[in-house]
Amino acid sequence: MRKVSFPHMGESYRAFKMLLTDLGNEVVLPPRPSRRTLNLGVQHSPEFACFPLKIVMGNYLEVIDKGANLLVTSGGVGPCRAGLYAELHKKTLRELGHPVDIIVFEPPRLHPINFIRNVNRLNPARLSIKAIIECIKRGWRKLQALDNLEKISHIIRPEELHRGTTTRMYKKVLEWVDSAYTTNEIIEAEAAAVDEMNKIPRDHERLILNLGMVGEIYVLLEPASNLEIEEVLGNLGVRVERSMFLTGWTRDNTWKETTEGMTVKDAAHPYLPELIGGHGRDSIGHTILYAKRNFDGIVQLAPFTCIPEIVARTILNKVSHDYSIPVLTFFLDEQTGKAGMVTRLEAFVDLMRMKKMQAAKLKPA
Amino acid sequence: MKAYLGIDVGSVSTNIAVQNGAGEIIAGLYLRTQGRPVETIQAGLKETRRILPADIEICGVGTTGSGRYLAGVIVGADVIKNEITAHAVAASYYVPDVKTVLEIGGQDSKMIIIRDGIVTDFAMNTVCAAGTGSFLDQQASRLGIPITQFGTLALQSANAVRIAGRCTVFAESDMIHKQQMGHSLKDIVNGLCEALVRNYLNNVGKGKELLAPVIFQGGVAANAGIKAAFERALNLEIVVTPHHDIIGAIGAALLAKEELDIIKKTTVFKGFSITDLAYRTGSFECDGCPNACEIAEIYEEERVIGRWGARCPKWDIVEDNNE
Predict the structure, then answer these.
(1) Which of B33, B2, B32 is CA-nearest to residue B18?
(2) pLDDT tens for residues A56-112?
(3) How many C-beta neighbours within 10 Å does residue A314 have?
(4) CATH code of the domain occupying A207-365
(5) Cα A32 to Cα A38: distance, rounded to the nearest angstrom
(6) Which helix (H) or strand (E) holds A241?
(7) In degrees rounded to 5, what are phi and psi of residue A356?
(8) E strand or H helix at A77, and its extent?
(9) Which residue(s) pair with B57 in the sheet?
(10) Contact A52, A221 (CB under 8 A)
(11) 3-state SS track over A8-33
């Protein structure tokens, strides 16, 4: 019996589960990465590979344990080793005695045939093209709803009156979106969830800091891999705006509203005119866009040994100086001790707060 | 007389400072944590009470350092602050127009850039022990030189030998190589000071603009050899402030005073009597989910006063009860 699974990445699994089930697949849900995932992943990965490879490896081994034998993942563009990871995963898993297959989705714009072929393989229900498009649309809509709720949690958390309310509420309303099926149901569930989130008692007087979060996509999107940094920052009174969401929906909206159509690529161009793989150029471009919107600071997240982000980090020194915006970088690995990160974040928040208060003093209202 | 208590619980040392309203340090202690923060805090406070004049009233407490939360719940702290902010505050207190703070402690090192009295940038070393006091300590004991004389010995050298500084492994093998080639101990020690400074400036400094006045603090600031090596590398005068080894604790005391001035509340300090209470720490593995968080807890007599290590709010009950 064929059972399909995929890597865990934030809350996106809720939409992927629906889509794959609609196409007639039996789905094994990937568990949220835990210490067990890490142990498995580290044990069976090359030592010098980056953190995402190890977590995903652990995740695969966990779903294989639950019977999954077909894994779905994405490929990569440009010189970043993540593009190779699917092959490496497959080879390693087979060497470990698991006869699994991996379907790798490359960006459809560049590889249309690969896309169609892959969709066909994942369509045992033999739905018509029209029906498939319908399913993808609904899945996409659900993904948008999930991203939207996460974004709202980032806005509300720093202002919440009672610590922990936002996180609890967010977890509750995610289930509403999860159980919605038709497009209408998804839209209704999202609206009800937004309403419910907006009811959280907030302190509007608090001095809130705006922080832009840039970096490599996996460690940005999977809270289990970044020690729930957004929650830590929210609790410190910081509104986090993340540069990357799976749908890109937020990003499009942000561009239109606030940066006069300037794209991330254009913004990064004076500092880095080339694609260096991964999300290095995006990290630079987003930092500049956030600085132009008067953000108080930037946090860059990167897997340890990630070359694109190391290059970006070096350039960000100059960006930070030119735009006078503080940047703090974290290289993440299997370390689970949170103390070092919390110390730096607390100091960074103090720094941003002092800077903001001094600026307010100099500029009489 | 009113005074403020600052406690800095670091990985290697636990420092205690009591500062009176006029800013004088009326008690200052530098103790080795030795992996037993709770006992060290209790012993330190016992000693502090012995030193303090009878008419001193503690009206504010601040804790800092990596053990700040632990210290905070034990003593009852008005403010619990990260060590970067605490160091910056204390540096600005001693040298108001300070622009650069170099800090090298036992197991970490920091650099803080200050402009117009506020911190504009900082860095803390993460992956490397080659730039910290522990490594000097270890090499001093390998060479049989008391760490207190390490600096003076380095100053006697006119010709530092080149030691690789990027990694303790390279440094140590280089030192052994040079020593077997017959270089004098003082030149090797001086070379090590230069290597440590070079490593610190590259690893922690990473392109930061280092302007005078430059303050050097932390335990390693006692080492005159390192101070001299910094002056040669930066071509700037390096100031070592008084009480440089307990500067974090002074910063915590200053922050406590500031905090209480703002919120106009009385201190939550539990008093020196806590040195006679029994504290017990324990840990367990939560089996609520596959994360299997290692939860650490601390008991005061039979009551849980703090819990850490959970990645979810499940074990937060304690804090709620206290509020």
Answers:
(1) B2
(2) 999 999 999 999 999 999 876 667 787 788 899 999 999 999 999 999 988 777 788
(3) 11
(4) 3.40.50.11900
(5) 11
(6) strand A238-242
(7) -65, -40
(8) none
(9) B2
(10) no
(11) CCCCCHHHHHHHHHHCCCEECCCCCC
Q: Which pLDDT value is given to residue A251?
A: 46
Average pLDDT value for residue range A331-357: 89
Q: Chain A interface residues facing chain B, Cβ-Cβ under 8 Å?
A: 31-32, 34-37, 164, 167-168, 228, 317, 320, 326, 331, 339-340, 342-344, 346-348, 350-351, 354-355, 358
Taking an 8 Å cut-off on Cβ atoms, the answer to whether A358 and B316 are in contact is: no
CA distances from A74 to A104, A224, B29 (A): 5, 19, 57
Give me the pLDDT at residue A261, please: 44
CATH of A3-127, one of 3.40.50, 3.30.1390, 2.60.120, 2.40.50: 3.40.50
Interchain CB contacts (distance < 8 Å): A and B: 62
Residue found under tokens 């919440």? A160
**Spatial distance between the Cα atoms of B101 and B81, rounded to a whole number of angstroms:** 18
Mean pLDDT of A329-333: 91
> In the sheet where A101-105 sits, what is the strand order?
A26-27, A3-5, A70-74, A101-105
Please give the Cα distance from B286 to B283 (Å, whole number): 10
Beta bridge partners of B25: B19
Choices 3.30.420.40, 3.20.20.70, 1.10.10.1760, 3.40.50.720: CATH for B97-240 = 3.30.420.40
Once rounded to an integer, what is the mean pLDDT over residues B80-89? 94
**Cα distance from A142 to chain B (closest Cα, Å)?**
26
Token pair 């966990």: residue: A62
What class has domain B2-88+248-276? alpha beta
Q: Give CA separation, B277 vs B45, B70, B72, B301, in Å.
A: 12, 15, 15, 6
Neighbours of A18 (CB within 10 A): 20
For B202-226, the pLDDT digits (tens) are 888 887 889 999 999 988 999 999 9
pLDDT tens per residue, range B153-205:
999 998 888 988 777 788 888 888 988 999 999 999 999 999 899 889 988 88
Q: Answer whether residue A337 shows pLDDT above 60.
A: yes
Domains of chain B: which residue ranges? 2-88+248-276, 97-240, 279-322
Q: What are B270's two structure tokens?
A: 């539990």
Tell me if A218 sits within 8 A of A9, measured CB to CB.
yes
Question: What does the pLDDT read at residue B266?
Answer: 86
Residue to mutate among A232, A341, A343, with most B CBs inside 10 A, is A343
